[in-house]
Design brief:
The protein contains one helix and 17 strands. Strand 4 and strand 5 form a beta hairpin. The chain has a six-stranded antiparallel β-sheet with strand order 4-5-8-15-12-13, with no helix packed on it. By secondary structure, the chain is mostly beta strands.
């Protein structure tokens, strides 16, 4: 067991903590698509789907709508989440969870969240959108990666209320065409 010690000084006050790598692994949990991840009095998340696509748009898109298109040599890794606010007050959409993707056991990418409107006709910026108490919304997490990594192994990690959840896949993720 290797002991790791961190020391920091903040405003002239010294802090010190020690842990092992085995301790940090205890904070990680394996998870699967469609599995419920829940923290009482905070939120419930169900990852509906994970896939690649070039364009992300709402399901009921109209003539004028917000959408996201990957750069020419890139593709989006999309993580679709059904989220329910379990707090007694509003919950900021961009504070619920975050994701990272490790491709080919080497390349790490992060992204951003966007929230499907209640009528499913638009995508809203997560940093200005809140879920009302007991409200449910679909939140898409978009990670833009180079197309050349699309067929490589991918490991997705979700951070949710202080814990990490690892998603691995036995086969390549599917590609969704926009119709």
């Amino acid at each position: 067991k290797t002991l790791i010690t961190l020391q920091a000084t903040i405003n002239d006050k010294k802090y010190k903590t020690s842990f092992t790598l085995q301790d940090t692994n205890k904070l990680r949990t394996s998870a699967k698509v469609k599995e419920i991840v829940k923290r009482d009095n905070f939120a419930q998340v169900i990852i509906d789907d994970i896939y690649y696509t070039n364009i992300v748009e709402p399901p009921m898109s109209r003539f004028l709508t917000t959408y996201y298109e990957a750069d020419e040599n890139n593709v989006y890794l999309v993580i679709e989440n059904k989220v329910k606010n379990l707090k007694s007050s509003e919950l900021a959409a961009d504070e619920i969870m975050s994701f990272s993707a490790l491709l080919d056991n080497y390349y790490e990418y992060t992204g951003f969240a966007t929230v499907e409107s209640v009528n499913q006709e638009d995508l809203n910026y997560a940093n200005i959108t809140s879920l009302p108490a007991l409200g449910e919304r679909k939140i898409y997490y978009l990670i833009e990666i180079p197309k050349e990594l699309q067929q490589k192994d991918v490991k997705i990690t979700m951070w949710f209320k202080g814990d990490y959840y690892d998603f691995s896949f036995d086969e390549n993720l599917k590609f969704k065409e926009v119709t």
